Amino acid sequence: MKLRAVLALCGLLSSTALIACGPPPATNTAKKVGKDVKVDDNAPSALTDIKFQESERGGDPKVVGCADGQREGFADLKQFPTIAGCLGVWDGSLTLRKGPTRKPCGDDLDVCTAPADVCAEGWHVCARDGDYHDLSDRVDDKQCSEGAGPGKFVAAISHVKKKKECAPAPGPTTRYPCLKDGYGAEPVCCGQNCRPGECRDAVWPGQTRISVGKAQGCGSVTSERNGGVLCCQDTEKPAPPAIVAPIDAVPTGSEAPTDAAAPAEDAAPAEDAAPAKGEDNKGE
User: Where in this protein does the record put region Disordered (predicted)?
Assistant: First the structure.
């Protein structure tokens, strides 16, 4: 009983800041970083201080391209109707080619399960199948750099075909991988904070830009440093050919029916018919 009374008294007095009971509270001390620890020079730059140029809030996601209804890149919908820069947040490192879970996300919505979930229905992460035309057919190199606005927005392709090897300018059927890390693995990028690497021919010959930082390739990106995603509108599939009902063929030639009945095979020709009565002696 006395112990309970003492504890109650301590609680009362502590709440009124008259005395302190028990051991002194622990103080938070900063953890010292060892001298041998260095910032990873290969990490891409962070997006924390970027002031994005955004489109209006509350847009139709299927038109805007971002699941939360607002763009952070390529904000001019009229000038760039089929490509959008969308910002998202996810846990850990994910590949840009991870398939969508159909759970909408974005900086104005929930945390993403996959980077592709920042793209609205009817849109996809640009170049997800390795085809650079998904970018080059929508914007040129200048629009990619300046039209996207501040920040970085990445596509689902690395900028080389093989690590440590700069590939020549792509051909019509060239496809790029989505490498995890290392030289050349960085994803192709649009935005004013993207930079040219040593290999610059992947999409726009001599002008292709990337999210510089070998620690995060296309196959392993964090939202802190590569949370801006390029979303491209799905192309419309051609309509299937109309089904035409078959039309019965019209008989021709000998197959055509006639209104008059065909003469009997044993019928006598007209000139062999017997003369009418009274006409057989007219010629005499």
Answer: 243-284
